[in-house]
Amino acid sequence: MNAARMIATLGFRRWYERQLIESHLCLVTCFLCIILLAVCIEHALPQSALRGSAAAVFIAFAAAAGGIWSWNHYRVVFSRAERYGHVAHCEHCGTYARFEVERTSAASSRGEPTLNVRCRQCRHRWTMPEA
Questions:
Q1: What is the rounded distance in angstroms from the CA atom of residue 26 to the CA atom of residue 10?
Q2: Residue 5 CA: distances (Å) to CA of 2, 14, 124
Q3: SS3 category, 90
Q4: Fewest C-beta in 10 Å: which of 29, 45, 56, 69?
């Protein structure tokens, strides 16, 4: 489900919270993969038996791939949440994250949809994300 549909369905605050939780879970996964990679390298280096080293090398490659994927996913999800979060306040009355999604536009240059929203308090309209 894309960001625009999830914001319209869940509301901005719950969507933003879920994005932060997802991104930080990916960050923790990245750290765990780094630790697993270090353990596998330490296990594989001193051994001369090819059988034990081959399994450790395979697990090390899997940990490296998982770490790279989780780091990239963390950066994408966290930066998207922050871009939307910086423009989620009404410029007119200053209310944060209390808006209704009126319409979604086509994807921007970053591949994210732009949302036309209206403040629930003062009915001011703006587009997000602007940046």
A1: 22
A2: 6, 13, 21
A3: coil
A4: 45
Sign of the alpha-carbon dihedral angle for 13, 19, 25, 30: negative
Return the pLDDT at 131. 45
pLDDT confidence tier of residue 111, bands split at 50, 70 and 90: low
Q: Mean pLDDT across the stretch 83-110? A: 82
Q: For residue 43, how many C-alpha atoms fall within 13 Å in the half-sphere facing its CB?
A: 17
Nearest 5°: CA angle at 60, between 58 and 65?
100
CA angle, 92 as apex, 87 and 93 as ends, to 5°?
95
Rounded to two decimals, the pTM is 0.79
Answer for the pair 68, 78: CB distance below 8 angstroms, yes or no.
no
Element (H, E) at 116: strand 113-119
Q: Which two tokens stand for residue 128?
A: 């997000």
